[in-house]
């Protein structure tokens, strides 16, 4: 592989999934037009969803999903011990994701409801950084392949990688969308981290904050906006709780 | 032959989610054959309780990273039926086009990247980039076409943005629809090349008589709603989905099993084909004839071929829908509604088979109860008993341990299981 005139080895990578829908891993197979070039950068050592070849000598681990069972903790620790760089990707890995909605009720009640009390093991949903050190996070539900590609290429070429610090509103304005607040809808765009190209408000549905809070948000002002517009605070709470990214703000 | 061996495939590769195959042979006789799902359960039925009807489809779409559009539409259909909301015609065909995109992309992913490596004796599609570049390219072109259909109609390929209660929140632009039309015309030859390639592959000769379950509406190939039918002649109303599933728990699997008239049944492309062959268009029928595939086919490996035939059907239908949308002013796309208490089932044909969401709401439109039954759940028992019959056949034919293992993993992959979906 040649980058800016420098010869480099392909990077040994593994992709792993825990409790989730595997939609983020699936994004890796999207953007078909650049897929062969992207794959050329990588030496895929372990990616169960697409390959029967499995080796444990990867340097970068992409980790998707949240942790809801004891065996997952052990598997995650083993991945951490092997990987030089562990990247949590997707809202489930970064925040606990929608799985956290089951944390609202006692786990034995959840088991009784879905499995008639059969001995099924589960525990409250945890994010990856609750268990091991995470080097980089790529949030989103699902992640954007553009961003994953940019960050993985950045890691390989040892360039600086970062997420946008500003909120979704900035991208949304650039797409010339009518503000959903003006249409009478609470949207988390003013407080959520950009990088998704404002895909939800562009589709005329509110941002639910799958990328978590932007840097330096003014949460009290956001709450005031909801009150000033006479919108439902129950609706605001439902949206803030959706991906568990705003858990630290819910009761502020 | 007095052979003893165990086949233990832990975390089967090239399928969505985590499942194990266990085969045990003692003194040349099959002692045990098991399909066990060990995926971590997520408890969506608990998660969705108390969520507003408006938001619920956005939550349930997260059951699956591959068939999120189907999950979203199953919830929307259940809620619209429960709350007596009638979406406008234009919204209905936009939704149908979105489903076609998802199914095309899902089938292309399975056929080229998950199933094909088995038939060509390689561990993944990566070596095929060198050995069969034209086939990988065709697969990527079809997958991208499917994704583009979903992006144009719903905002993105996974976890749709604009599928909402009452219709759609935003209509696709005429320009994007026109581009889609061109894209389909350009990529149709890739599907023909693919079909010719798949005809050169040899599918294992294995038959176990099976009851096939799907939707049927009598006027079109089934996608959204309809009667629940089986090849054994069972017919039920959509709301009577429990009679068509009869879920039960086993000791060895976190995913439930189901049955109807027999000990197991199957859903998916082959089931839809077997129940709705008369409603396929000319291109799809021609493709079926070229494989000698006729209803009722009881070889589970032919599910791969049925998926390919459905790709022909979908592309033909997508062209018609796009023409209709280009002639439409695309203004009437969402019905107004007031939340109300109710209960109903929404059944859709997800890429892997019939999917049921049953939802109950209170007068504020909050979800009070939900039940989701996933296609792979409906295939678990059939995979389990197929494995038994296939392993016995392999033993009788004197196949080696390695050959038997290969057949078993190929069998499971033929069902294109979506395991994390089945343990929602």
Could you characterize the architecture of this molecule?
The complex is a heterodimer of chains A (252) and B (424). Chain A contains ten helices and seven strands. Chain A has 252 residues and is an alpha/beta fold. Chain A folds into two domains: 2-156, Rossmann fold (3-Layer(aba) Sandwich), CATH 3.40.50; 168-241, no CATH class. A five-stranded parallel sheet of chain A has the order 4-3-5-6-7. A two-stranded antiparallel sheet of chain A has the order 1-2. In chain A, a hairpin with a 2-residue loop joins strand 1 and strand 2. Chain B has 424 residues and is of the alpha+beta class. Chain B is 44% helix and 15% strand. At the A-B interface, helix 1, helix 2, helix 5, helix 8 and helix 10 of A face helix 1, helix 4 and helix 6 of B.
Question: What does this entry show, briefly?
Answer:
Chain A is of the alpha/beta class. Chain A has helices spanning 23-28, 35-40, 70-82, 91-95, 107-115, 145-156, 168-174, 199-202, 219-228, 233-241, and strands at residues 2-3, 6-7, 11-17, 42-47, 60-64, 85-89, 136-138.
Secondary structure layout:
The complex is a heterodimer of chains A (252) and B (424).
Chain A: E1 2-3, E2 6-7, E3 11-17, H1 23-28, H2 35-40, E4 42-47, E5 60-64, H3 70-82, E6 85-89, H4 91-95, H5 107-115, E7 136-138, H6 145-156, H7 168-174, H8 199-202, H9 219-228, H10 233-241
Parallel strand pairs in A: 3-4, 3-5, 5-6, 6-7
Antiparallel strand pairs in A: 1-2
Chain B: E1 5-9, E2 19-26, E3 29-37, H1 44-47, H2 56-60, H3 68-82, H4 89-119, H5 128-131, H6 133-154, E4 163-164, E5 167-168, H7 174-199, E6 211-216, E7 227-230, E8 235-236, E9 265-266, H8 269-276, H9 282-290, H10 303-326, E10 342-350, E11 353-361, E12 367-373, H11 375-396, H12 401-414, H13 419-422
Parallel strand pairs in B: 6-9
Antiparallel strand pairs in B: 1-2, 2-3, 4-5, 6-7, 7-8, 10-11, 11-12
Helix pairs in contact in B: 3-4, 4-6, 4-10, 6-7, 7-10, 8-10, 9-10, 11-12
